[in-house]
Design brief:
The complex is a heterotrimer of chains A (126), B (156) and C (314). Chain A is mainly α. Chain A contains four helices and one strand; from the N terminus they run H-H-H-E-H. Helix content of chain A is 73%, strand content 2%. The longest helix of chain A is centred in the last third of the chain and has 27 residues. The longest helix of chain B is centred in the first third of the chain and has 20 residues. A six-stranded mixed β-sheet of chain C has the order 5-6-7-8-10-9, with no helix packed on it. In chain C, helix 3 links the parallel strand 3 and strand 4. The mean pLDDT of chain C is 89. The chains are: A mainly alpha (126), B alpha/beta (156), C alpha/beta (314). Strand 1 of chain B pairs antiparallel with strand 1 of chain C, so a sheet runs across the interface.
Chain lengths: 126, 156, 314
């Protein structure tokens, strides 16, 4: 069961990394601060997703959650107060923004499920 | 088993140091297009996402346009991006001379159209003179830095 | 697949050294892989910008040469501008055009315009475009400027052109100034009519001297009627506004529009809020060269945004 969850996390991480890489190559790379952050997010997402294929130790789960949560946080900031002067509206660019947000939310949920499942296994009586 | 335990606190400290080290290392490959003073991106003057460009600032500029009590005399100094005195009072027939003491060029130009003041570009130490032949209030500004405004009041 | 191995439990005091090594190992592996991944992705970006690709548009923006300025902030602006043009000619590619975003001269004299025109002709490029700055229209409403550079322009000197699938607008917001930059109704009409026939997925680039956004209104670094133009530009998928006037690099993005201010080839001005007035700043020689520069812009057909590269004059 947890194998499936782990592989699902791999998929969501790969998706958010892919979207950020695609947007980076498609032009976001020239935006100051945003460009490099997209690159970082994509690189970390792909790297952690690749490693998660083998195991899901705490370190990788934290990194995966960080990549997903960081991207979500950046998304919210860019629609509200702005990130270093950069703002966008709604779910632009479509459909990438929506796909990425869904993938990140799902990723975080799955990591939570995995972690909760382990807690339950460690204390079977409770 | 008999293995030495490393305290949680040490691990947390290590993790923190490691992360800070990484983040600062990540900070260096900045893209070539960010300016040396790219911290401007969050500057107060560049208003955030909601207010649109080109909005008029209700407040007056830094120095020049403060409505001061008119000073009498025949010279106006242009210094620190301001006309000094900002409000001059003279009698009809007086010749007023402006001197540019600033590092940048300035002009003495009547506000709006049809006014009598229309100096050429004045470099540092250049002067411009005009004799006021009619009474009235003559508002003027520098066309290069239009936030520099002043007035000459001519009395009969 | 091997699951998370329940080794010696992390006891109340902490973890074993072996566990720490394992955690560090995974972390290190993730870092390494991330670096590799990052390199791969960014190399994909630079690979694609083939310099020899004829469909790639490359142009250069220079600004604020202030020929005729004398002062401690730069005792030889002419040499600085020559240096800048040398950089343009040694970028490693021939730009499709060079755009000067204003304040070509310092005092609008015909002699200064002649000198700038002659210097610009040394740029190895196919075309040179300009827009005037407020220093180019002192005392004559822009007459001397238009005599030198007004060919094929309308009104005060505005115009538009298309190349490589990009639509360019060159606007004049430095005449009839009252506190801020000003476009005027005639020019707004021109822009409206000009943009009517442009498809929304065409990238648009707008040149002007004074910023079209409120960068620092206290010093006049803003345009009082640009909102109407901004609204006309909202329907396009990608709009880039390149301006001069402020003598420093600055970028701001709002939705589909990105504003990039360019630096000067003459003398630096203070950052907003760091000085009481926009006075020419006196810097030691090497810092001065760092503050001066040109900008090269690349656009690959199919990209959403333009890629900017700032080149300092050091």
């Amino acid at each position: 069961m947890s194998v499936l969850i782990r592989l699902a996390i791999v998929a969501t991480l790969a998706e958010t990394g892919f979207v950020h890489a695609k947007l980076y190559l498609g032009g976001y790379r020239v935006i100051p601060y945003i460009g490099p952050m997209f690159l970082l997010q994509a690189a970390v997402s792909f790297a952690v997703a690749a490693l998660l294929l083998f195991a899901a130790p705490v370190v990788l789960r934290l990194l995966a959650a960080g990549a997903a949560a960081g991207a979500l946080f950046g998304f919210v900031l860019s629609r509200t107060v702005g990130v270093f002067g950069f703002t966008e509206r709604g779910f632009d660019p479509a459909p990438d923004a929506l796909l990425s947000v869904l993938a990140e939310v799902l990723c975080l949920l799955l990591i939570g499920v995995l972690w909760a499942g382990e807690l339950r296994r460690r204390r079977p009586a409770l | 088993m008999g293995m030495p335990i490393i305290s949680k606190r040490k691990v947390a400290a290590l993790a923190l140091v490691g992360s800070v080290g990484l983040i600062s290392a990540c900070g260096t490959p900045a893209p070539t297009l960010t300016a040396p003073n790219s911290s401007l991106a969050g500057m107060p003057g560049a208003s955030g996402s909601t207010s649109m460009p080109g909005m008029d600032m209700p407040s007056s500029s830094a120095a020049a346009s403060a409505p001061a009590a008119p000073v009498s005399g025949t010279t106006v100094a242009i210094t620190n991006f301001a006309f000094s005195p900002a409000s001059l009072s003279v009698k009809v027939g007086t010749k007023v001379t402006w001197t540019n003491k600033d590092g940048d060029a300035h002009t003495v130009t009547s506000t709006g159209s049809g006014g009598p003041l229309n100096s050429p570009a004045m470099a540092t130490n250049d002067t411009f003179s005009y004799t006021f032949t009619t009474a009235g209030t003559f508002n003027y500004l520098c066309t290069i830095h239009p936030f520099m405004t002043a007035v000459v009041t001519v009395t009969p | 697949m091997r699951e998370h191995i329940e080794e010696q439990e992390t006891g109340p005091e902490g973890m074993t050294r072996r566990q720490l090594m394992r955690h560090a190992g995974w972390f290190g592996g993730a870092v390494l892989l991330s670096v590799v991944g990052g390199e791969v992705i960014s190399s994909l970006a630079t690979d694609a910008t083939a310099a020899s690709d004829p469909n790639t548009l490359k142009f250069v923006q220079v600004s604020d040469s202030h020929i005729g300025f004398t002062g401690p902030a730069n005792t030889d602006v002419t040499a600085s501008f020559e240096h800048a043009l040398d950089r343009v000619n040694s970028l490693g590619f021939r730009p499709d055009f060079v755009m000067h975003t204003g304040d070509l001269t310092h005092l609008s004299t015909p002699a200064q315009f002649d000198q700038v025109k002659q210097m610009l002709s040394t740029a190895r490029t196919d075309r040179v475009f300009v827009v005037p700055g407020e220093h180019d229209s002192v005392g004559d409403g822009g007459k001397a400027y238009r005599q030198a550079f007004g060919a094929n322009t309308a009104g005060d000197g505005w115009y538009s052109f298309d190349t490589h699938g990009v639509h360019f607008l060159a606007l004049v917001n430095t005449l009839a100034l009252e506190k801020f930059g000003h476009l005027g109704n005639d020019q707004l009409d021109f822009v409206r009519k000009d943009l009517a026939g442009v498809k929304s997925d065409t990238p648009v680039v707008v040149f002007s001297h004074i910023p079209l956004f409120a960068m620092y209104p206290q010093w006049g670094w803003s345009t009082d009627d640009s909102l109407q133009v901004i609204n006309m530009l909202r329907r396009f998928s990608s709009v880039t506004c390149l301006n001069g006037h402020v003598h420093q690099l600055f970028t701001k993005t709002e939705g589909n529009i990105t504003f990039h201010s360019a630096t000067t080839t003459a003398y630096p001005l203070p950052k907003p809020g760091t000085a009481p007035q926009p006075t020419p700043q006196v810097l030691p020689a090497r810092q001065l060269q760092d503050a001066l520069g040109i900008r090269s812009v690349t656009y690959r057909e199919g990209d959403q945004l333009l890629a900017l590269k700032e080149e300092r004059l050091t």
